[in-house]
Write a structure and sequence with these properties.
single chain; 348 residues; alpha/beta; FAD/NAD(P)-binding domain; D-Amino Acid Oxidase, Chain A, domain 2; 8-stranded mixed β-sheet; 26% strand; globular; binds flavin-adenine dinucleotide
Length: 348
């Protein structure tokens, strides 16, 4: 029985442990969740926007495979609290490659996708003053999930399946596969996967392991009172604005930040960015807060140049599974399946 350590209790680590458990019945797998960091991780506050289309071809294949699995599995849909609001992805234009991707998504999720030009999208009533030539990929079968809810549910499943779930932090990981829990004794594993999100670099650095090009960046959105006729889940590449309906008659609205190399954990929101989010939302979707509190939410996420959550080897038997770059909520189901298959192959 191979001994496998998965380090990280975010959606990446938990989903990977769950996939591994499907292939190699639980008992050799240990998951270290990293408490108390888990409560301040990216999965806890993720917007969970979920759709099949992505302008990057690899991400598009992962996102559409993940959405197809979710659509086909009512249990998974319930665990992830999937809400089908539809999705709009607005781009400045449509090149040949992107048009091919839209066709690929049409085949994977039949009857869901239509392409609208700026005039057609404006006529539907939410978006305004769109740049000439802009194009929207509109998906009927898309919306948002709760990565936080899904990982909490999967943690219960893992404990039931015989995976040892340890609510503690790992101090160090060595090149030889020795994992040292804080306050515990070192343990040796055949395979160690570091899926500690924005904490991954610091953990690897302690023992001189390379990070494979990972970087941290803050993500920030606001939660504000919704107004009638608000948007579905959407991304507007022409301004960077994204959003979706939120619980308790609120709307989630965000813009990308440029706050790189921020330490994870307690990151403060930038008030100037919150103001900019509301300004852009006013201009693009006619949003003006109808009174009530506007709360800012910020957290740190781990980025990789490819933009993808995927398994990356660092040394013999040592891997990272992170680098979701602000989008792993929508790709994690497919990415974890691919990663688990690849790990199981190396063990045979
Ligand atoms: C504000 C925000 C909004 C987002 N919105 C969306 C969205 O709308 N759609 C979408 O697809 N994606 C979205 N994302 C991205 C997505 O949520 C992330 O890609 C995903 O949650 C990352 O999961 P993770 O498991 O890699 O990292 P995390 O969720 O950060 O988890 C890392 C885990 O590692 C653990 N850990 C840390 N140090 C240690 C240690 N020493 N030992 C053991 N464990 C440790 C922590 O406890 C934590 O549980 C958003 C992200 C943020 C921050």
């Amino acid at each position: 029985m191979p001994r496998i350590a998965v380090i990280g209790g975010g959606i990446a680590g938990v989903t990977l442990a769950w996939r591994l458990c499907e292939s190699i019945r639980g008992t050799g797998i240990q998951l270290f969740t990293g408490e108390p960091y888990r409560r301040a991780d990216a999965s806890a506050v993720s917007g969970g926007l979920t759709r099949a289309f992505e302008p990057d071809p690899d991400l598009c294949m992962e996102a559409s495979a993940s959405l197809a699995e979710l659509q086909a599995d009512p249990v998974l849909r319930a665990w992830a609290s999937y809400r089908e609001t539809g999705s709009v992805y607005l781009m400045p234009g449509l090149g040949r490659e992107t048009a091919d991707l839209v066709d690929a998504v049409r085949q994977r999720v039949p009857g869901s996708v239509e392409l609208l030009d700026a005039g057609q999208l404006t006529a539907r009533g939410v978006f305004r003053d769109l740049p000439e030539g802009s194009v929207a990929v509109v998906e009927k079968h898309a919306g948002y999930v709760s990565p936080n809810g899904l990982r909490d549910r999967l943690l219960v499943e893992l404990a039931r399946s015989g995976v040892r779930v340890v609510d503690g932090r790992i101090e160090t990981v060595t090149r030889e596969g020795v994992v040292h829990p804080v306050g515990g004794s070192p343990m040796r594993f055949d395979v160690v996967v570091v899926a500690a999100g924005a904490w991954t670099r610091t953990l690897l650095k302690r023992t001189g392991l390379p990070d494979g090009g990972l970087r941290n960046k803050a993500i920030q959105y606001v939660l504000a009172p919704s107004q009638p006729g608000g948007p579905s889940a959407f991304v507007d590449e022409t301004t960077g604005l994204y959003g979706r309906p939120y619980a308790d008659a609120r709307v989630l609205l965000g813009l990308p930040t440029d706050r790189w190399d921020v330490p994870p954990g307690a990151v403060s929101a930038d008030p100037a960015l919150s103001t900019r989010i509301l300004d852009v939302a006013k201009a693009r979707i006619g949003y003006s807060p109808p009174g009530g509190e506007v709360a800012a939410v910020a957290a740190v996420e781990c980025y990789h140049a490819t933009g993808a959550l995927s398994l990356r080897p660092l040394a013999q038997g040592i891997y990272t599974f992170t680098g979701g770059s602000g989008g792993a909520g929508k790709t994690v189901l497919a990415a974890s399946r691919t990663a688990a298959r690849s790990l199981v192959r190396t063990l045979r």
